[in-house]
Amino acid sequence: MSTVIYPSPIFGPVHSRRLGISLGINLLPADGKVCSFDCIYCECGFNEDHRPSLPLPTRQEVAQALEKKLQEMKDEGQLPDVLTFAGNGEPTCHPHFAEIIDDTISLRDQYCPKAKVCVLSNSTMIHRKQVHDALMKVDDNILKLDTVDPSYIKKVDHPNGTYDVNQIIERMKAFYGHIIIQTMFMRGNCNGESVDNTSEEYVAPWLEVVRQIKPQQVMVYTIDRETPAQGLEKASREQLDVIRDRVIAAGIPCSASY
Q: Staple 11 to which of 7, 32, 81, 199, CB 3.0 to 4.6 Å?
């Protein structure tokens, strides 16, 4: 099994299927994974297999490393399309996430004002006011909602602690449209149980909730790299296209990444 553990606090740039030339910002340790989910499809592997020994990067370390890299890219004439908070787990877990967002926006404005600031989050920390307020400041607030079925979330996303999908949905509505919903669709089996969420049983209620949240955009995608759990399969291009077209028909822009 191959997993990806990203450097910290800056990695890339990489070419993202959904975002273009992306300079990654990893607020988690460089030698392991810290996440409030433990998804069976995570490219970084399972949490227990990648316990870090290094501390989280400090706010100052993130700002200094980001400025250094942006200066290098400016000198080389290749500025990023987007500054993306991603990496080895959940970025909003960092205790100084809000302050780091402010620093990043300031550096973006100085070095690459045309670039977007993007956060990829599993939505588990959006109940925190400082996290909510910080996400309102970024260009692309991309929040995960793989399904609205609690049993599926427990089986596939493995949230740590209490996770109430209905509360998550209400907090997503509180962004008043300043949100991009990201959903992983896949097929296959794990531990003898189906993990296929491409059927009407899952898609119809998910689509109804998407309508209620009224996001600025939806991103549907499927497995792209090796997964820590065995037996998982990509959703087909045809399945993703059908789901994408249903979202578009509901009046919401939607992209599909295969």
A: 7
Tokens of 65: 């490393």
Q: Going edge to edge, which strands form the sheet with 217-221?
A: 10-16, 20-26, 82-86, 116-121, 140-144, 180-184, 217-221, 254-257
Give the strand order in the sheet containing 232-234.
Answer: 193-194, 186-190, 232-234
| Cis preceding linkage at 150, omega within 30 | no
CA distance 78 to 70: 9
Q: Do 146 and 197 touch, CB atoms closer than 8 A?
A: yes
Q: Tell me the three state secondary structure of residue 216.
A: coil
Residue 17 is given by DSSP the state: T
34: left (phi > 0), else alpha (psi -120 to 50), else beta? beta
Among 232, 215, 234, 236, CA closest to 224: 234
Q: Tell whether pTM > 0.90.
A: yes
pLDDT tens string 73-107: 999 999 999 999 999 999 999 999 999 999 999 99
